[in-house]
Amino acid sequence: LHVEWYKVVWPALQQHAIPVVFSTQNAEHVYQARQAAAGRADSGQTTRLRLFEQAACQRSRAVIVCSEPDRDVLQSLAPATPFVTVENGVDLSFFSASDADVLDEPPTIAFSGAMWYEPNIDAVTYFCRDILPTVATRIPNVRFSIVGADPPREVRRLQDESPRVQVTGRVADVRPYIRRAAVVVVPIRVGGGTRLKILEAMAMKKAVVSTSIGCEGLAVCDGADILIADTPSSFADAVIRVIGDPPMRARLERSAVRLAQARYGWDRVLIPLQRLYECPLNANGRIPAAASA
Question: Using CA atoms, how far apart are residues 144 and 154, in angstroms rounded to an integer?
Fold first, then answer.
């Protein structure tokens, strides 16, 4: 039985006759700890989640994670359980690269994601209040588009606070907003797993500026296929460089799309998952260790 979410894995594990493979998008207790550190969650939940994840991983026949950092964290809790890393991927035919993109004028910065999600709320609030004003001192006509469904009041308020901010709410297709942007930003400070928004932007041949947490678990190289910045001033400087230096932006874009096409197409990233389910259980009812290599 393949179980996708930590909140439903425990009932599945009670069915002792059915082997369970637990697939998780991130180490939830790490996510919770980051939320608590940012003042957005109860710190007491972190220990309880850690114990729950440990028990779930120990009792599962195998655990699927989407990044090596999450694998390292969770496997330390259940060293006897086989782990398989199945990286997140991107539909390269849908999020396709183009050399004919016409950028917005004035220049636009884009952020995309589900806007009900706490890490995204924190990210755009942080960007608007701590980063965007610095960018605007160098690029006075810059605009910032927040693209994603169900923005809460605190996100909608950002466009009331600044005429340069646009909050779209749900859109039929995110791609036109990404195509017109000079740079895609991922100022994530809390959360876990890996960011589909980065893979989508890279596949569309877009320059990305991210925090370290934002691009955690992705095989990106700072200065080659992405710019990484973890303070408001360095993040603002990186955004200003990308917008103001078209040749440098073009180099980032070329490197980003090469990486997305070489490593993150679904036909490539799903190979470990296929190998896992083609592998018979051993005598102990476990996935053999070789299948998780």
Answer: 16
Question: Tokens in use for 33?
Answer: 């700890």
CA dist 101 → 98, 183, 215 (Å) = 6, 13, 24
- pLDDT recorded at residue 240: 98
Kindly report the number of other CB atoms within 10 A of residue 56's CB atom: 24
Using CA atoms, how far apart are residues 32 and 50, in angstroms rounded to an integer?
Answer: 9
- What is the average per-residue pLDDT within 202-230? 96
Determine contact, residues 34/41, Cβ cutoff 8 Å. no
Residue 121 has pLDDT above 90, yes or no: yes
Is pLDDT of 283 > 50? no
Instruction: Give the C-alpha separation, 43 to 146, whole Å.
Output: 29
- Cα–Cα distance list, 143 to 50, 60, 76, 136, 168 (Å): 41, 48, 44, 9, 13
Mean pLDDT across the stretch 53-79? 92
- Strands (DSSP E) contained in 97-241 are 108-112, 143-147, 165-169, 183-186, 208-210, 227-228
Query: Is the bond leading into 176 cis (omega within 30 degrees of zero)?
Result: no
